[in-house]
Amino acid sequence: MGLRRVAIVGAGITKFYRYAQETPKELAYEAAKMALDSCEMTLKDIDCVALGTAPDAFDGVHMNGEYLTDGAGAFQKPFMRHYVGGGTGVMSPIHGWFHVASGMFDTCLVIAEEKMSSAFPHPAGAFLTIFDHTTEQPLFPTLIWIFAIEMHRFMHRHGYTKEEIAQVAVKNKRNALDHPSAQLGAEITVKDVLDSEMMAYPVNRLDISPTSDGASAIILASENVARRVTEKPVWIDGIGYCLDTAYWCNRDLYYPDYVEVAARNAYEMAGIKEPSKEIHVAEPYDPFTYKELHHIEGLQLCKRGESVKMLLDGVTQRDGNLPCCPSGGLLGVGNPIAASGIMKIIEIFLQLREEAGARQVPGKPTCGLAQAWGDLMQVGTVVVMRS
Amino acid sequence: MTKEIAIIGIGTTGFRATTPDLSFRELTYEAAKKAYVDAGVEPKEIGAFVATSEDFCEGYSIADEYAPDQVGAALRPIYTVPGDFIQSMGSGVMMLRSGLYDLVAVQGLSKASNMITKTYLTDFALDPIYNRPLKEHSDYIAGMEMNRYFYETGTFREQCAQVVVKNKRNAMFNPLAGHGCDLTLDYVMESPMVSYPLSELDISPYSDGAVVIVMATAETALALSDTPIWVRGIGWTSDTPGLETRDWGKAVYAELAGDMAYKMAGIRSPRSEVDFAEVSDEFSYKELQHLEALRLCSPGEAGQLTMDGVTEISGDLPVNPSGGCLGVGCLLECTGGQKVLDVVLQLRGEAGQNQIPDVTTGLAMSWRGLPTTTGAVAILSN
């Protein structure tokens, strides 16, 4: 289609905490500075800033994007914020891609920040107002309830058991032990997951990613700039995003159509015909254990109903045929909503550059994928990257 | 003139002080439907959609959840920009220029009548550590800025009052506007003081309403439309969120956003190349400050031009012929949407009684309101 090529040339990520001492601005600053330093650029080299952050209620600031501008390095620059709930993190490089691919800018600082601990006593309170004010809010639903509904339906439809799904937590938390930003890296067993506090059947505490504070950033550049600043650019070859209807009760929750649509758009753009063979490493979104499996199926990385087999056969382990969440994912590294999406992008960036250290997957991967999901179980955002 | 991107469809609900009969979904649906009919497209033919919303204004956390259904975008590429409509439009322009899509729709909405504590909300946009504890009514920021602007440029209150008189009168002849009236200069001057020198009538009231536009790449636009309105330039810039670090006299954001748009449009001398402008006038002095920042006149000149009638519909440089925010009502994130809509109507020759004869290039500019320093500019030609 003659699209302008866009590369990721630098990345930065803060540590993910439960209670960060930094203000949201300072978190954003830290990630932006790390990303700039990683490719020896300064703010002078940055043409524009695209920022992702999910609900304002977390940071507790109205027009949170405006508040973050100077921390995010956008002082007197073209600055635009975007959001699609939990999918915001992976939407960020997509929005950044538009900035550079349009030919209007040559470099774009893409940054995501979330400080959930400002919502006191617990950020779950901010989710009370995501539901329809007439048909749903009077029931005082919590997020965990609706995911329990989805998980239950997913298990029932495919005959998965809680023991099988718990393996995702074991894998990801172990992977996270090697991630310097990780909040919850741990060596746990399936029994630990099943014995942890029951939140809403079938969701146990260890099935859920933690609430976190953190920020992450990447630098996007056009081909001519990318070739100049780095020897190892990682190209964004495919993007896909889509939202399903807000009337989530009307859908069969066992399968994420929205992820499939987004993935197919990204594959078409990247020229990928057989995703399970052509993708070497993947970061599917895993805020809950079952979600990783749910998304692997939506991403066409396996047939419907076969994701658990993949997991049990070790295919998705770091040394498996198709490593999934080698970073440790949200379950292990933490889940500062938007920032965790870019964390996944950064993981693929490092894996494709073979700079992931102890987390490096074997076999010199050249094609990777990151995906996120959000809102009322309705958003799919997918980015395909190649070295 | 480069013809790359054009607006081929517009739709709106019109703007009213309150809409108890319609939900936010219904408002957007009406605007979207009209825009698609105007462009002659079905939603399924549109490649991607951009919605505009700000959580606390909508009363929802992650308000973007409710974007897809009413614009026909369920299971389609759509995302939300929490910014001004013209920023969303900028996003749409980038999407079209990337080559990925031929048609993009942009949505903006205001349901301001649902908000019962607007000033508290503005306070919530202030830095939580340095500025929010001051606990002042947020309009004091506008008062301070107005005072500094007066001091630096020699502008005075009568000139701002004349802006109010002009815009509210223009709105009387705009069927979409909700706050038109015929006031005298003296009446405006005597309106109660809010935060010196800002008086009650210097502040624009709020309105409800939605705007949807359909944009297309050149080839598609020429195939679908007889009256494409070309997006020649677009720009957006954020200055600083801090009250301590901003330039109180000058609208730096408007200057930078204007420069970006002028550069893209290849405009060197805005005053001679722009025929008319719809600029943000959420506070009366903002219209003057923005005209100067956009180089449509010299610093300190805007007030006198207003007194001389240059910015009237019949003048040399008509400004806010629609009635602007003062006459139409401030539309929160959709403010830029109303500006773009009215520039398109003027350029198509469909502005009714407010039509300016023989216009070819118009400028739409919006500001995100207190306490931000973010502005966006679009330059359109027929």
Helix-and-strand structural type of chain A? alpha/beta
Largest interface: A-B, 65 and 59 residues
CATH class categorisation of the largest domain in chain B:
Alpha Beta
Number of helices of chain A: 14
Helical amount of chain B: 25-40%
Give the C-alpha Rg of chain B. 19 Å
- Which H/E pattern describes the elements of chain A? EHEHHEHEHHHEEEHEHHEHHHHEE
Strand content of chain A: 15-25%
* Strand neighbour order, sheet with most strands of chain A: 3-2-4-7-1-8-11-10-9
By oligomeric state, this entry counts as heterodimer
- Order of adjacent strands in the largest pleated sheet of chain B: 3-2-4-7-1-8-11-10-9
CATH superfamily of the largest domain in chain B: Thiolase/Chalcone synthase
Number of strands of chain B: 11
Total individual domains of chain A: 1
Helix content of chain A: 25-40%
CATH superfamily membership of chain A: Thiolase/Chalcone synthase
What is the CA-atom radius of gyration of chain A, in angstroms? 19 Å
Describe this structure in words.
Chain A has one domain (6-120, 210-386): Peroxisomal Thiolase, Chain A, domain 1. Chain A has 14 helices and eleven strands. In chain A, strand 5 and strand 6 form a beta hairpin. In chain A, the strands form two sheets. In chain A, strands 3-2-4-7-1-8-11-10-9 form a nine-stranded mixed sheet. In chain A, strands 5-6 form a two-stranded antiparallel ribbon. By secondary structure, chain A is an alpha/beta fold. The mean pLDDT of chain A is 94. Chain B is an alpha/beta fold and 382 residues long. Chain B has two domains: 5-116 and 207-229, Peroxisomal Thiolase, Chain A, domain 1, CATH 3.40.47; 125-203 and 231-381, 3-Layer(aba) Sandwich (Peroxisomal Thiolase, Chain A, domain 1). Helices cover 36% and strands 18% of the residues of chain B. Chain B has helices spanning 24-39, 55-58, 85-97, 118-124, 139-153, 157-172, 185-189, 218-224, 252-265, 270-273, 284-293, 302-307, 324-328, 335-348; strands at 5-12, 48-52, 78-81, 103-111, 193-195, 198-199, 208-217, 229-238, 276-278, 361-367, 374-381. In chain B, strands 3-2-4-7-1-8-11-10-9 form a nine-stranded mixed sheet. In chain B, strands 5-6 form a two-stranded antiparallel ribbon. In chain B, strand 2, helix 2 (55-58) and strand 3 (78-81) form a beta-alpha-beta unit. In chain B, helix 6 packs across helix 11. The radius of gyration of chain B is 19 Å and the shape is globular. The N and C termini of chain B lie close together (10 Å). The mean pLDDT of chain B is 95.
